[in-house]
Amino acid sequence: MSQSGEKVKFSDSAGYVGFANLPNQVHRKSVKKGFEFTLMVVGESGLGKSTLINSLFLTDLYPERYIPGAAEKIERTVQIEASTVEIEERGVKLRLTVVDTPGYGDAINSQDCFKTIIHYIDNQFERYLHDESGLNRRHIIDNRVHCCFYFISPFGHGLKPLDVEFMKALHGKVNIVPVIAKADTLTLKERERLKRRVLDEIAEHGIRIYQLPDADSDEDEEFKEQTRVLKASIPFAVIGSNQLIEVKGKKIRGRLYPWGVVEVENPEHNDFLKLRTMLVTHMQDLQEVTQDLHYENFRSERLKRTGKPVEEEVVDKDRILQQKEAEFRWETPFLSCVACRK
Ligand code: GDP
């Protein structure tokens, strides 16, 4: 895997993300073209977002990240950082963009950070709407945000007001997948209690998180069971690590503590593998919900606001350009005449 365009193949023995079965989900034509997916990660800094992303995609997306001190954080506004990697597994290409939001929740006034994130998501919809109405609509690059992992702190007693406000502000624009960060800091009992609390609060506040689709009745039993387990695991309680540790002669990703090793890819230790399975097996559904629900909402709102379809705006822009050109042609001879007289 590599940053911004460079391609590296994974061999079967190396780490493996598992999206090679994506073609089963979609039309074969897409295989040649590759898949485009954009994942946003949001949550207070220090919750382990970058570590988890690096663990999920077996890469180092943030090699030289600068971490600001507390004084700087007070003044800081949220930033948007998009990193694109191209991954290829067994001939299937994935162009993955991870949108990070460093600075989220750092400043005392959090309202502004919502605005920046909403603005980013809307901008991607706007670009898509514009490209879709243009001449080159076959080759549109889809940068719309298909999924947002929202990181919840393991140290509180449930959702914080900021978590509630953010999810309510964004649930109509993006598929939100809630994630409990640093699950290794919780006992099994505490983990279960926090999960239940988070789900209750999500329901209480009318927050609409991404709903995994039910398995079709003709799917095999294994897939049905997988879907049931994934649904029951939400919010996924995960751990991340950039460290490889040797356990029983095998190198694994984990966190080494005085009392033992917490393994990232061990389903008994945390929900990391479930989160990854959810993402890769439901990538197409996440894209479809983005298209059919969030993008359509944006489109109809946008048309209501401006009162005309974007196609007309493009025509309008063309007309203005033609007028400008005509004016320019009209003015040029005059200018050259002035030049002659000099
Ligand atoms: P970000 O600011 O949300 O991107 O957080 P980072 O990924 O930079 O991680 C912040 C700190 O938390 C680092 O010291 C990580 O080593 C540590 N960390 C990351 N993931 C975990 C985890 O799952 N459990 C624990 N206990 N610490 C973690």
TrEMBL record:
Organism: Chrysemys picta bellii (Western painted turtle)
Subcellular location, record wording: Cell projection, Cilium membrane; Cleavage furrow; Cytoplasm, Cytoskeleton, Spindle; Midbody
Keywords of the record: Cell cycle, Cell division, Cell membrane, Cell projection, Cytoplasm, Cytoskeleton, GTP-binding, Membrane, Mitosis, Nucleotide-binding
Important for dimerization (site feature) positions: F155
GO MF annotation, one: GTP binding
GO cellular component, one term: spindle
Ranges of residues in domain Septin-type G: 33-305
Keyword Cytoplasm: yes
Name recorded for this polypeptide: Septin-type G domain-containing protein
Family: Belongs to the TRAFAC class TrmE-Era-EngA-EngB-Septin-like GTPase superfamily. Septin GTPase family.
Gene: LOC101939207
Family matches, as InterPro entries: G_SEPTIN_dom (IPR030379), P-loop_NTPase (IPR027417), Septin (IPR016491), Septin2 (IPR008113)
Keyword Nucleotide-binding belongs to the record: yes
GO biological process: one example: cell division
